[in-house]
Amino acid sequence: MDTVVERVIRTFNGHVYAVAGVVMGFFDDPAQTQECAHQIVDLTHHEVEVFGNQLIMVL
Fold first, then answer.
1. Residue 4: what are its φ and ψ, rounded to 5°?
2. Which residues, listed in sequence order, are joined to residue 11 by a DSSP beta bridge?
3. Distance between terminal CA atoms of the chain?
4. pTM of this structure
5. DSSP label at residue 33
6. In what order do the strands lie in the sheet with 15-19?
7. CA-CA distance, 7 to 12, in Å (whole number)?
8. Is residue 2 scored above 80 in pLDDT?
9. Across all residues in the chain, what is the average pLDDT?
10. Comparing C-alpha atoms, which of 20, 21, 46, 16 is closest to residue 33?
11. Which of 58, 7, 9, 17 is nearest to 36 (CA)?
12. How far apart are CA 22 and CA 31, in angstroms?
């Protein structure tokens, strides 16, 4: 399944792991993670949690 969230994560050169209604993105740089999270929030209006180089969103 290729959701909008997964496409945004890939746009920011992240790696996606999705399972059981949770999407996780892994990045090389915390700044990339923050920028991607802001973009996802702007597009989906859902909460995104950021932990260093990782983001998590519950669908």
1. -60, -40
2. none
3. 13
4. 0.90
5. H
6. 15-19, 22-26, 54-58, 49-51
7. 9
8. no
9. 93
10. 16
11. 9
12. 22
